[in-house]
Design a protein that fits this description.
The structure holds two protein chains of two kinds.
Chain A (H helix, E strand, L loop, with lengths): L1 E4 L2 E4 L13 E5 L6 H9 L7 E2 L6 E2 L2 E2 L5 H10 L1 E4 L3 H4 L6 H13 L3 H14 L5 H4 L9 H13 L5 E5 L7 H18 L2 E6 L2 H7 L2 E6 L2 E7 H6 L4 H8 L39 H5 L5 E4 L2 E3 L4 H7 L1
Parallel strand pairs in A: 3-9, 3-10, 7-8, 8-9
Antiparallel strand pairs in A: 1-2, 1-4, 5-6, 10-11, 11-13, 12-13
Helix pairs in contact in A: 4-5, 4-7, 5-7, 7-8
Chain B lengths: L1 H27 L17 H10 L6 H13 L12 H36 L4 H15 L2 H12 L17 H31 L2 H8 L4 H39 L4 H10 L3 H29 L7
Classes of the chains: A alpha/beta, B mainly alpha.
GO cellular component, one term (chain B): plasma membrane
Protein name (chain B): ABC transporter permease
Keywords (chain B): Cell membrane, Membrane, Transmembrane, Transmembrane helix, Transport
């Protein structure tokens, strides 16, 4: 996946591969600009092409390659097969239509429901996401909802067509901490109830630990580590993950300076040769600059793109 | 909402008084004999001067004159000109013609302007986009009377003889389409550009992305989600433009020889018929004020985030 811009070709995604099964939650973790949202939007097929170009790859859903489908067929998959919720529900919901309209629209246009049926179902959906007095609030506009309620409404809207996979793109980033926890709980609950697959995109390790089954860590448009949640927290298999975990504030280290990852993530038009993390990596050595690390298999479905992955895991 | 409307209507009163007084003062407080040149080469008959001064309250102080005039206006009496023509009657024959032409102009500029704006806004940097940008620039930089004369000449019998460009004294809608187009041409260019910018701005908005991610058909994404938001500034512009179209009619009516308000006011100014000028301008002020009130109310309907209490 590339973005062809005036400043050159940005190789936004390179060798990204993951899979999600029904009832499973995969967390995609990474800094801003690591390509995690772009991956999600590529799966959804909602990127503007051009400037985006998919040079090669496959996106398999229900065993079929989405990239080989026509635009209309892909549109059918959106909402019905794969639904998506976004970071900032205030801007993601249309400000000039009521919340009810935006949910009912899905039911009416995509399912051909009557107005009355759609309204009834929309109230049910709002109830399911625990919006108090759903019946009374369905005719409210998004700006009349609080931040948490808006995200709930967004979730209700994404569930309207009973998708098999839900992509949540930083669903709690714009919310305050107490509300974040409520929304994550709600997502986990709904996912369990519906046995739905979920891709959770986030940069928040704390969020990941509670909800996800597996984690893919992204850096500079590639997946650098992939592991089971428990395994990853126990012993990270890539120096980048290691640094991320070290930069988490911890209660037992109170009073000490918080560790940070030095430097900035690379510009995607100018990715450093070799391992893209090498300029910031505390364990970097000569080979990291000259050679792109291959995928190291660490067993139990764990992979890491680091020359010394085995060593890193062992030390963790 | 009701209280807001009432408040706005009450606000109209001081604005109305202020503007009309200004016009009245400008017309009648000119330090010049209002009867100069009214009676041909000779100075006017003292009896006539006395009678007209009495009729127009010219002997009273300006403020008293103004309120007497206003009192007559409220009872529907626009007064009579120096040669005894009823201003009210003149206005009532010309007004519908100008109004018709103004509305035609508004419809034309809305339809063509918005369509061009949408098409170019969605497909930036194509042939169509450049065509619209250049042609709107052309229309904006061209004075309306030039557009009027050129179209009249080339479309009419002396030119390519495509249509009859003459307008009768009691014009039909068909006759007013070309003048309406000319009158609306400048605003049409603005509407096209405004719509284009608005579409370009909103087309990458998050809610549009959401609508696409929902799998809504393209026609609904554009026609419902994008358009409803993008047209808010355009409709505001169109509303206020109705007032300016009435004023802009002076030139267009002159070019096409239309017997409307514009011609009336032009003649009023030329012949120093102050009573005619004040009467018509007062009416235009009223139209403008009501149009802007309507726009403000419409704004709340279009954008639910705006609420008046």
């Amino acid at each position: 996946m590339e973005f062809r811009t005036r400043d050159g070709v940005a190789k936004v995604l390179n060798g990204v591969s993951y899979h999600v099964s029904a009832g499973e939650t995969l967390a995609v973790l990474g800094e801003s600009g690591s390509g995690k949202s772009v991956t999600a939007q590529t799966i959804m097929g909602i990127l503007d092409m051009p400037p985006a170009f998919i040079t090669k790859g496959t996106i398999k859903f229900r065993g079929e390659d989405l990239l080989e489908k026509s635009a209309d067929e892909r549109r059918e998959v959106r909402g019905e097969g794969i639904a998506m919720i976004f970071q900032d529900a205030l801007s993601a919901l249309n400000p000039v239509f009521t919340v009810g309209f935006q949910i009912e629209e899905q039911l009416k246009v995509r399912r051909g429901m009557s107005k009355a049926d759609a309204r009834k179902r929309a109230v049910e959906l709002l109830d399911q996401v625990k919006i108090p007095n759903a019946k009374g609030r369905i005719s409210d506009y998004p700006h009349q909802f609080s931040g948490g309620m808006r995200q709930r409404a967004m979730i209700a809207m994404s569930l309207a067509l009973d998708p098999e996979l839900l992509i949540a793109d930083e669903p709690t980033t714009a919310l305050d901490v107490t509300v974040q926890a409520q929304i994550m709980d709600l997502l986990a609950e709904i996912q369990k109830e519906r046995d739905m697959g979920m891709i959770l995109i986030t940069h928040d390790l704390g969020v990941v630990a509670d909800v996800a089954d597996r984690i893919s860590v992204m850096y500079a448009g590639r997946i650098v580590e992939h592991a089971d949640v428990y395994e990853l927290f126990r012993a990270p298999g890539h120096p980048y993950t290691e640094s991320l975990l070290e930069s988490l504030p911890r209660l037992d280290l109170k009073g000490q300076e918080l560790k940070t990852i030095k430097g900035l993530p690379p510009s995607l038009t100018n990715i450093p040769p070799g391992c893209p993390f090498n300029p910031r990596c505390p364990r970097a050595f000569d080979r990291c600059v000259s050679e792109v690390p291959a995928v190291h298999n660490l067993g139990m479905g764990r992979t890491s793109r680091c020359h010394i992955a085995e060593e890193v895991v062992a030390r963790g | 909402m009701g209280r807001y409307v009432l408040r706005r209507l009450l606000q109209l009163i001081p604005v109305f008084l202020g503007t009309t007084f200004l016009i009245y003062a400008l017309v009648w407080a000119i330090p010049q004999d209002p009867f100069a040149g009214k009676c041909g080469q000779r100075p006017c008959d003292p009896n006539y001067i006395a009678e007209m001064s009495q009729k127009l309250n010219l002997n009273d102080p300006l403020l008293v004159q103004y309120f007497k005039y206003l009192g007559n206006l409220i009872t529907g009496d626009f007064g009579t000109t120096f040669n005894g023509v009823s201003v009210g009657e003149q206005i009532s024959t010309s007004w519908p013609i100008t109004l018709k032409m103004g509305l035609i102009a508004l419809v034309i500029e809305a339809i063509i302007g918005i369509t061009a704006g949408i098409l170019t806004g969605l497909r930036k940097q194509g042939f169509l986009d450049n065509l619209v940008l250049v042609s709107t620039l052309f229309l904006i930089s061209l004075p309306v009377f030039v557009t009027g004369f050129v179209l009249r000449l080339y479309l009419g019998p002396q030119g390519f003889d495509i249509m009859d460009t003459s307008v009768s004294s009691d014009p039909t809608i068909g006759e007013l389409i070309l003048p309406g187009f000319v009158l609306g041409s400048l605003s049409m260019a603005y509407v096209a550009r405004l719509t284009r910018t608005s579409i370009v701005e909103n087309r990458r908005a998050d809610y549009v992305r959401t609508a696409i991610a929902k799998g809504q058909p393209q026609t609904r994404v554009v026609g419902i989600h994008l358009l409803r938001n993008s047209l808010i500034p355009v409709i505001t512009f169109l509303g206020t433009d109705l007032g300016s179209l009435m004023g802009g009619a002076i030139v267009t009516e002159g070019v096409f020889n239309i017997n409307g308000i514009g011609g009336l006011i032009f003649r009023g100014i030329q012949e120093k018929e102050g009573i005619m000028v004040t009467g018509i301008v007062t009416l235009l002020v009223l139209v403008y004020l009501l149009a802007s009130l309507l726009v403000d109310l419409l704004y709340a309907v279009l954008d639910p985030r705006i609420r008046y209490e």
